[in-house]
Design brief:
Blueprint (H helix, E strand, L loop, with lengths): L1 E2 L4 E3 L6 E3 L14 E4 L5 E9 L3 E6 L2 E10 L3 E6 L2 E5 L2 E3 L3 E6 L2 E5 L2 E3 L3 E6 L2 E5 L2 E3 L4 E6 L2 E5 L2 E3 L5 E4 L2
């Protein structure tokens, strides 16, 4: 799904919008995922679940707000480049990498990143991570390279390693 305008996904708490493959049991990489290109509009993904994508949500040069959006069994849960993002609740699990940020401004609050190979990777990004849980990520919970970080009130447990910060 390629969007070159605005995306508004507004599911219910008890009835989230589900994006998945056409197969009964979604597996990693079954479909490409959602791509948002160069959108400065008020993009919203709320009460949503994305399953089995190559990259669940891929945003470049965009602004997006995610509320209770969860990305499951994707090769990459969320990838953002040169974007502004606010993620409240939700997160990514069972992915190769839960969240990748390049040259972004990101505010992540109360999200969960369980059972990924790598929870969060961030490069040249201003990242605020508050009240989130990064658990049981095989290799590493959080890797940051040349970033400005504000890490407050999070839980890192059962990961291969906790934090790897380089030039931050």
């Amino acid at each position: 799904l390629v969007i070159q305008g605005r995306i508004m996904v507004n599911g219910g708490v008890d009835k989230p919008v589900i994006f998945t493959s056409l197969y009964e049991n979604a597996a990693t990489g079954d479909w490409q995922g959602i791509v948002l290109l160069a959108s400065e509009k008020k993009n919203l993904i709320e009460n949503c679940r994305v399953e089995g994508a190559e990259t669940g949500f891929d945003a470049s040069f965009s602004k997006v707000s995610m509320k209770n959006a969860f990305f499951n069994r994707c090769r990459t849960g969320v990838r953002m480049q040169d974007s502004f993002a606010v993620m409240t609740g939700g997160g990514a699990g069972g992915c190769g990498c839960g969240l990748i940020l390049y040259d972004c401004e990101a505010d992540i609050r109360s999200a969960v990143f369980p059972d990924n190979r790598l929870g969060i990777y961030s490069a040249r990004t201003s990242l605020s991570l508050t009240g989130s849980r990064l658990t049981h990520n095989d290799q590493l919970a959080l890797a940051a390279d040349a970033c400005k970080l504000n890490i407050t009130g999070n839980s890192f447990s059962g990961n291969g390693s906790g934090l790897n910060l380089t030039g931050c």
